[in-house]
Amino acid sequence: MLALALLACIDYRVVTPPVTPVPALAAAPQTIALDGICGGEEQVITLTNPGTGPTTITAITVDGMGWTVPVLPALPFTLEPLLDDPAAHLDLALAAGAGVATLVVSSDAPEVDVPLRASDNQHPTVVILNPYEDEVVGEDDDLLLTGLVADADDDLGDLTVVWVADNGFFSTAVPDADGRVETDWPADQRTAGPQLIQLVANDACEDQGETTLYYCQDGPFAIDVLGDEAWRFDGGASWDGSELTLVNGPSETGAGFDLFSLFDGDVLDVMFEVLLQDDGTGAPEGLSFTLLDPARVTTYIGGDGCGLGYGGDASCTSGPALPGWSVELDTLAGDDDCAVGDHVAVVVDGAITSPAGCASAALAGEWHTVELVVSAGLVSVVLDGVTVLDAAVPSGQAFEGFAGFTAATGVGGGTVKVRNVTVIDSTCVR
Asked: Hey, what's the torsion of the CAs at 89, 93, 99, 102, to 10 degrees?
């Protein structure tokens, strides 16, 4: 009993061994994957220390493409454990760019790797359903503009969608759940002639998708034909950017035709300025405006001399005759002419000895303004503001033709020039 009592009085003490601090490092989030970035967006990764002792960060790098850490903290950086300071952390701001990379954080704890991935924003896609490419729209018809828009990265409701036309028309549109956009375009807000309509969609990144198509609306529309790039020149003809010279010297024949546009053979309004000039040795034979029938054309330059570059049924020219109709301005009288002295005539298929109409007119020596109005089978020739000839054109001229000019000089020479050519058409080519 005594022994037990003595044992009970002995003081037992438990000795706790010392704790070794252990550094640790964790990142949140542990990975970043982004789709459809605009570029330069900021992503934040928070570093914390879940260990039992301070962690010393010695290096922060990004391996790969697209991602950067624009501002690094001063290194080495000591991160206290959360056990001692629950608020202890380090925020790293990353600039996201398209590519795959890894954020690598080195310290006296195990290395932390954070996978990074981002893809660029995709621009919207757009399609115009109505009108269709090359469609001809009636002059008085309403038009429902219809299109489809889509975007792989953005909600359709976040897109900004507009219709734009080259006549100044501008209208916003809101896509429905299927991406369809529809906008009424009344006839009184449209202009006649060949033109472009464009559908444009912008997303939240200001990336743009657009499509453009050509269509044409019936009704009077003016075309500066000399501005077209598809002119064909034959003989002595040339273009210097402001004036079309057809002939400039003795015994020349020249022709120039716009092969880009087709014009109505029976509804047309043509305006131009012409110079038929004696160059000191003689006056030119004259000039023609010809609407050439492409279905029958075999050559773009016709008879020399009295043929004025288009005619071909007379003994004074070798031909060939150009198919279509012509208005000739003749400044050199001859036995084949329909009037004495300067005159104008309407000729079909180059038949210069049997014109559909003929009238005297003063033509030589200075620039003249000429307007040719074709309507309902009648050709009116207006010279310097005065109507000098109304002539009926025989049936069969309701074709779509190439507009152009021909001219010729005799042995005496002369110069023929044309400038400021405008054609007013009324019907689009179908």
From this structure: -30
Listing DSSP states for 4-35 in one string gives: HHHHHTS---PPPPPPPP----EEESS-EEEE
Tokens of 402: 């190439």
What's the pLDDT tens digit per position in 56-106?
999 999 999 999 999 999 999 999 999 999 999 999 999 999 999 999 999
In angstroms, the first-to-last Cα distance of the chain is 128
Element (H, E) at 79: strand 77-79
- ∠ CA 264-265-271, nearest 5°, is 80
Cβ neighbors of 398 (< 8 A, separation 6 or more) are 264, 265, 266
Angle CA(264)–CA(270)–CA(274) in degrees, nearest 5? Answer: 140
Q: With 0-12 CB in 10 A as exposed, 13-18 as middle and 19+ as buried, what is 21? A: exposed
- 46, 73 Cβ separation under 8 angstroms: no
The secondary structure of residue 68, as a DSSP letter, is B
pLDDT digits (tens, 9 = 90+) for 110-134: 999 999 999 998 899 999 999 999 9
User: Is the alpha carbon torsion for 372, 426, 290, 374 positive or negative?
Assistant: negative
